[in-house]
Amino acid sequence: MAVAIVLAAGKGSRMKSDIAKQFMTLKGREVLYYSLKVFQENANIRDIILVTGQDDIEFCKKNIVDRYSLDKVSRVCAGGKERYNSVYLGLRQVEERDRNIVLIHDGARPFVTDRMIDETIEAAGKYGACTVGMPVKDTIKKVDENGFGVETPDRNYLYQIQTPQAFKYDLLISAYDKMEADENYKITDDTMLVEQYEGVRSKIVEGAYENIKITTPEDLEIAVKFVEKFFDKF
Ligand code: CTP
Ligand code: MG
How far is the CA of 53 from the centre of ligand 1 (A)? Predict the structure, then answer.
């Protein structure tokens, strides 16, 4: 059994909307609802820790957790300034009995599937760290500060990284403790963290191109289509 930390403490600045993107609705239900629902229904998940803004804790408890009977959500806690602050605060809420495999998931990524959860849990048990990802479709270029391409890495070796990401709890918390002690840290996700501070490489498990993170306004239009496709019971 594993514990999931679902992140919903971001401000969503790239969405440029009044309401944070994780609370925007798709076909009448919040983006965050869809993300949580998949974890709620997965047989390998025992507990869910929801990390949100201090001012949104009550809203989440009442309007999402209670309203949709998401009884695996055992805690709703406040996040921090950056995504990694929110992860760290969530990790510290994990109960002793759950300190085995921990999954980190973006609340703004509603099309995670049961299969991704099962496969990341399994791979984390085997390799210590894993993430879902997909081969990139476009050619990727490294550029210089003047906007000129300087390098074109071989696309066969490039993946776009998604969540969920799963880890052995002790490995991830140890990496975070080391990052705390380091003044020059700069990380964008937890797989990068365990690479840098623990020297552990993450196994990549197949995600899906539909497993988008809702980030900019046009993502909402696609997301409505995906809700119709994946959550057809509504
Ligand atoms: N997140 C979080 N705490 C933060 C920043 C982000 O819990 N301090 C969460 C977001 O709520 C989101 C996920 O991490 O579910 C992925 O982050 P991102 O897509 O970058 O969301 P935001 O930071 O909210 O958006 P933006 O970067 O456009 O401001
Ligand atoms: Mg962000």
Answer: 11
Structure tokens at 141: 């270029």
**What tokens appear for 215 in the block?**
């980030």
pLDDT for residue 185? 85
**Percent of residues, the chain, with pLDDT higher than 90:** 94
Residues in a beta bridge with 52:
8, 78
* CB 23, CB 30: distance < 8 Å: yes
pLDDT tens digits, residue range 15-28? 999 999 999 999 99
Atom of ligand 1 nearest to the CA of 216: 28
**Ligand 2 center to residue 14 CA distance, Å?**
8
pTM for this model (two decimals): 0.97
Ligand with smallest separation from the Cα of 11: 1
Q: Return all residues near 174 (Cβ < 8 A) that are at least 6 apart.
A: 197, 198
- Tell me how far CA of residue 18 lies from CA of 10, 13, 35, 109, 208, in angstroms: 13, 10, 21, 19, 29
67 lines ligand 1 (CB under 6 A): no
User: 4, 105 in Cβ contact below 8 A?
Assistant: yes
